[in-house]
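Troubleshooting log. The previous structure file for this entry was overwritten by mistake, so regenerating from the original sequence record. Sequence copied from the archived sheet and checked twice against the printout by T.R.
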Amino acid sequence: MANPSLQIGNSNWAIKEDNLLGYSTAGTRFLPQPITMTRASAGTRVNPQGLVETVELLGSEEVTDGNFPTPNTEWSSFGLATINENIVNFVDAGSNTYSGITQDINSFSAKQYKVEITVTNWISGDILATFSSNNASFNITGNGTYSVYITPVSNGDDIGLVRDYSSGADFSYSITNVSVKESTKNNLARVDYDGTASSLLVEPMRTNLLPYSEDLSQWNTKQATETLNYGISPDGTQNSTRLVFASSNLQFSNTLSTGSVTSGSIYAKGVSGETITFGLKSSESTFTFNGLWQRLEVQGTATSNKITVNTYGGVTARDFEVWGGQIEEGSYATSYIPTNGEAGGVTRNQDQYSKTGISNLINSEEGVLFVEMAALSDDLSTRMISLSDGSNTNRIHCFYYSASNTIGLNYRVAGVTEASITASLGDETDFKKIAFRWESGNFKLYIDGVPSGTDANTTMLPSDTLNKLAFEQGDGGSNFYGKVKHLQVYKTALTDPELVTLTT
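Regenerated output below.
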């Protein structure tokens, strides 16, 4: 079988800001083929360890001696903060003395930085990270590793770690392992994991309308006893909320004043076999715990602006943990979007992928487009992956159809669809290996090793017409969203046995 001219994925993933690395092969050599990635916002994924995380790239370490070795020449202390061997102690019994440590770092620029510390010996109090007049609270609740994100006011700002007066007059804790690194979150591809299997997560724009997705003390209806920062949540930190209900027919909820909501979700963990009710105002479902973290999802009407966890309907769970609430407009729940008091919620933009100027990698007259992918939902929308000339006029496209659980393949010349094949997928949310061959009089679709449609068209695109790969129809419409494990483009029309092998 010929080598593909372009590949994405197949467990070979590399990302940097604005790019996903595709590749081609020349003999035994791999040649990089950067794919342009755009999403002007942060986004989360499930990492290889099974944890929910915001995808980010960190720069080099900006602080020196973040573990406070002796002798100390980089840090200055003031007030009741004292620097000792490998640790800084903060202790005050009600004097409200301004206390902290600073380091002069000339390399800071007006970009976002991640500040991380390790807290030990914690009894009470909190700490602020400061860049000039900008500051952010770590929200310390016990020993552990904490992080915040902050942007300097101007280039060359110092980094400071100072006591947080808002947490009270008494404070007692120690810190070490201070780290400050530039953080990039926007325009980063998201490689999502399900066990050991990885796929590129491509989603539409969504907004989590809940102002507080993790701080459930801000929810407005509480008929349960809350314990904040109780257990280890799906993001790997100790920030879950324990809910204890005294009896049946009680509710824990949050109601939005505005917004059209059709999907709600929350992570929950309880005793295996016990049940709980979760839902929106007009739609609730009963879920059975399995002893692990589960994401509960429900769909409702356009006015379902109330998210609820309750003990109605004879459910058995009275004591369990929750984390990561989300309500969004859409017929299904998308990946978790964290919020922390933002008015109107937080928006994650559409994931977009494209590569232009690649006529040398595409044969307009014959070839194969192979994709191993799954839809996010059978929502009856058209979602395309295309090879085109940058327009809707000349293109080859593979798409989830505006019919339930249907895949479509088209070959379009000068605005006319010359070859078209559709086939049933059974369930389009399952991963399928799909290959589309184009060749004069010999168009064919294979799905999971089985021939699934043919077309005998003989009208072909002129050579060197196609020059763009895009996760849309070519001119920006019908954006693709789903999960992609592997994509390949071939410049030759593979044989039927080769297509069976490729898709099996």
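DSSP finds one helix and 42 strands in the chain. Archived copy saved in two places this time.
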